[in-house]
């Protein structure tokens, strides 16, 4: 990339992204300078990192002014430094779409004057000299104002959160200069946690970009993609179609171990019947970020929980809400539950599926009174075997 410079920062301190999703490998907030006859800054970074950010910018352009600040996405981890950068470069014009400026004025009271903004619509262009930029609107990937910027001169796509992933950058910026192994699972988790609900808008965005020559993808999180562009686009296409691979995720809640023992019986039976990819998740002990990622990946899902306060165990109730909010498709569902004197868990999970998900029900739901008996243990094994046969 000629005269395109990463000027973003790494966040190795935050433990939860959006206060929800663990960051075991950190996260990057990517920003880019296009250094041409006119200087353009593409997106900014979270405001806590402004001091480092402005040093990165000045290291590239020295005392030159910034002519344009392009805002592809208004989420504060990318727009948070906007008000401050404008104080350093007051004459820079802010480039965005109508919805961008509506949000910008509300967040930062910036962009109020007509002479300080350049409002663009789908297909509009901007010349920096050598670099010619084209703007494409991709609403709801994953906010309504989201757009991407294509440098048609060098075939570089500045993609905002699209094609991003968790994980800080460890020295290098471009995928061809690093080991990318850690980023593939982090991409799956990022997509399932953050973008998962918006499969249809992602598919629409991919159609808009189909046939466009793209040699580099510069997202706002994670590596710059060059060597692995085909794989990255393929991953986003797969995930946004809710495509899965054969495998089984068993999610359970358990207060005293009885529901957990049932989950183990189901897993053993599924394994004996030939399922190799089996993951068990305790909804109370594990952050749901990792559970959601595995559910997005594998086509088999078995949910089990005890009855709690004449309803469903809270950790499972939360997971059901999270799944419904992501519009997940293309799964097979098994159900089990336990109770002491009045069973509700199996009923509640079944009602949730009928109302929200419409997953294909596999096997016979298992309801365990107090603890496993020979009869309910056999029923658990039958459920695991039935799921294995359906996955084949």
TrEMBL record:
Domain Flavodoxin-like: 248-388
SUPFAM superfamilies in the record: Flavoproteins, Metallo-hydrolase/oxidoreductase
Molecular-function GO term, any one: oxidoreductase activity
Domain of life: Bacteria
Transmembrane regions listed in the UniProt entry: none
Pfam family, one: ODP
Family: In the N-terminal section; belongs to the zinc metallo-hydrolase group 3 family.
Identification of the protein by name: FprA family A-type flavoprotein
Species this protein is from: Leyella stercorea
